[in-house]
Specification:
Layout: E1 4-8, H1 14-24, E2 28-30, H2 40-53, H3 58-64, H4 74-87, H5 91-98, H6 106-124, H7 135-145, H8 148-154, H9 160-174, H10 180-192, E3 202-206, E4 215-220, H11 231-253, E5 256-264, E6 267-270, E7 273-276, H12 281-284, E8 291-293, H13 298-301, E9 305-309, H14 327-331, E10 348-351, E11 355-363, E12 366-371, E13 375-380, E14 384-386
Length: 390
């Protein structure tokens, strides 16, 4: 396993690989940074969501009570702790009590009162009533109205854009669950299963972090326009940005000692909507004489595509773009139809949270499953495995 590496263009792309590996029990390490749910902005966002769902979570409340800054400093937090201890209650309830008194300075009291009013409103929208919002929309609302998103947008550090992308990925992850409680429970399970023993693990890292490293086999997912090359880099830096992206593609391909496997999706879920994806222009630049095509590219027939490069050669034109009419004649490449993957109606499956169940219907990558103990649920196929594989 340690000779395998997954190299992604952006940090948010690691989440799905991490969760899938945890589901399958495959040990992995994220090199060059923390795991997805351990990242600062994700922990902050999760703290907001935990307070909405369970206001008495003191650790979560203390983490975000002054993030972004609201003039609620350490001295105020100590006052809240004292009130909570005296009353045998939580920090949240102590805050709700203290804003009705004159114990705090007017400016601090107003800031804290506004925060408590926001939490009360968000909590009212998180229930099951007619006014309830989908939990992914509620997360976006809380992050926006709290000022957290604006804080990152105003942050001029090079890490800030990636943090915003991670928050968007978090919201995307929430869409796979029926309610906020289910999502929070899932994340708790993920965090409990991050201990890996031994040194034999799959490596996950960004292309930037892969410089100077080599692996036997390298997987390069997400080679799609806008994602790689990254749209923001091209918008901000023009031709120079595109060249930087091209150099990253070269870095990724040349990390492989034996083979590099490039893949792209025909469709990608963005902000809750499925959108068609266009294969990266870098796919066209792969030298066809060094390619082994494993499945029909999505640009032609839809679906996912894999191309396997067995050489570090990169940069010649006339790659896939010259093969659209007849790929076999133009390139001489071996074309292999991929075996269909997925699940069948009636098949027994296993979900890390819901346990064993049976597939009752299939809609693309969405499965309706009747679980033995959890009842009927709809989940994405990436979150279940065949029961006999457990």
């Amino acid at each position: 396993l340690q000779d395998l590496a997954i190299l992604v263009r952006a940090g948010f792309q690691t989440r799905e690989f991490e969760e899938r590996f945890l589901t399958l029990g495959i040990p992995y390490r994220v090199i060059g940074g923390p795991r997805f749910y351990e990242r600062m902005e994700i922990r902050d966002a999760m703290a907001y969501l935990r307070v909405i769902h369970q206001p008495d979570d003191d650790l979560a409340f203390e983490r975000i009570v002054n993030k972004p800054k609201r003039t609620i400093g350490d001295a105020t937090v100590q006052v809240l702790h004292a009130v909570a201890r005296a009353g045998g209650t939580s920090l949240y309830r102590a805050a709700a009590e203290i804003v009705t008194t004159d114990e705090l300075k007017p400016r601090t009291r107003t800031s804290l009162a506004n925060l408590m009013a926001d939490f009360a409103r968000w909590r009212a929208l998180s229930g099951e009533g007619p006014a309830a919002l989908p939990h992914s929309e509620l997360a976006e609302m809380a992050l926006d109205e709290s000022g957290y998103t604006e804080m990152l947008m105003n942050d001029k550090s090079p890490e800030a854009p990636g943090r915003l992308e991670n928050l968007k990925e978090l919201v995307t992850a929430m869409e796979e669950f029926e309610n906020l409680g289910g999502f929070l429970e899932h994340v708790s399970l993920v965090m409990e299963n991050t201990e890996n023993a031994g040194a034999d693990m799959v490596n996950i890292m960004t292309l930037h972090g892969a410089k100077g490293l080599e692996f036997g086999t390298v997987f390069l997912p997400g080679w799609e326009e806008g994602l790689f090359p990254h749209q923001r880099n091209m918008d901000e830096n023009g031709a120079a940005g595109l060249e930087e992206e091209r150099r990253l593609a070269y870095v990724g391909l040349t990390r492989a000692k034996r083979s590099a496997i490039v893949s792209f999706a025909a469709n990608r879920r963005i902000h809750g909507q499925w959108q068609s994806a266009i294969p990266s222009r870098f796919v066209d630049e792969l030298p066809p004489e060094h390619l082994l095509i494993e499945s029909e590219p999505g640009i032609y027939e839809g679906g996912d595509a894999l191309s396997q490069s067995r050489s570090s050669g990169f940069g010649s034109r006339g790659g896939w773009s010259g093969r659209r009419s007849d790929p076999l004649i133009e390139t001489g490449a071996t074309l292999i139809e991929a075996d269909p993957v997925g699940f069948a109606i009636g098949e027994r499956v296993f979900h890390q949270k819901f346990g064993y169940g049976r597939v009752t219907s299939i809609d693309r990558n969405k499965l309706a499953i009747s679980f033995d103990k959890a009842g009927d649920k709809k989940v994405l196929d990436s979150f279940v495995v065949a029961a006999d594989a457990v």
